[in-house]
């Protein structure tokens, strides 16, 4: 703790959260925001089941079927920017309401689509809402103590996998009996549940401090203290960063403080909106930003490329009502849990960069043998191991990405990185399916491995290790 010019004791939000610990408040917040990510995952995963049924009912072409997925990803590109900028400008709660309302309401209305064009337009709007879903883990991160921030964000990522499993089970139960319209309607209900209880979740104290709303931030911290049954430090919270810390490498700490000082100075001006947008292009952040973009692109490209590879090599040629389609999604989704567990164990022990780079390069190693013809059983095992690693990498990425940026531009920086990642989701099916149709599995594996290898190298070039450090 330190003192201000008037002699009053002050402390940072990180010092307050470390004193309050991870308690009842954070556990309830994890359940609430985690449910939000379950809802987003369900909206994305239902595309795997709805497309074939829509094609059968309305007699559209295969390209038109694929367009239902493509317009969602196109909407997510725009939504990631809007959600990031909006939550940095108007608050984390505003970003949450944007993603919940814009994905939930049109998602429900989709069930009543009279024709293909209407469904396409509504799914695009749903994509706008889904694009802002990165606000959820960032909002949660800003309430978690620094010492175990990595492990809990990795645990938060489990909710995405849980959402994919729940959607597969819901589809398995609903589609053969009631059809795709009921699936669309029921898949949107978690968003409405979240909206009902959204008023009970407070604004991030970090965001409030960054906007100079110290008294409001104190009210939030006092609420956390009551719920966790722990006292706050004496004094008042401040947005000023801690100036000295013996636990960090001096060179790294110096860079961090330079970045924070410049950004605090920049964002205090009247042109705050412009500076928020430009902050992650500053000299101190540009290197991390560009490297983060490469890792996001590679991670999304590899994840969706693996989905297509698994489907191809497991020879799943299912009809919409065939149970093997749902079983395949369930089994491959369960393959993600070991990676999430491994990331949660390692991230606060060996650091973000080593864990992220290790996961990516392990995925690269598991994919490499698939460039040759292998037995189907061995191929599936290697693909499942690769998916385990890429999901573990995603868990680390969800921790490291927001930690790189200060509160003033955190969601903007993460949002633009997410945009680059979404481009990877668009490129992956185009590249993978085109090559697999021409029986060029070797080329598919080589492209994915090259992309992952470059991302692994990028992890070694990140200038900052954020394990255990305060974020501002």
Automatic annotation (TrEMBL):
The entry's keywords: Membrane, Transmembrane, Transmembrane helix, Transport
Subcellular location: Membrane
Pfam families documented for this protein: Sugar_tr (PF00083)
Residues annotated as domain Major facilitator superfamily (MFS) profile: 29-467
Protein name: Major facilitator superfamily (MFS) profile domain-containing protein
SUPFAM superfamilies on file: MFS general substrate transporter
Domain of life according to the entry: Eukaryota
GO cellular component, one term: membrane
Signal peptide residues on this chain, from the entry's feature table: none
Annotated source species: Urochloa decumbens
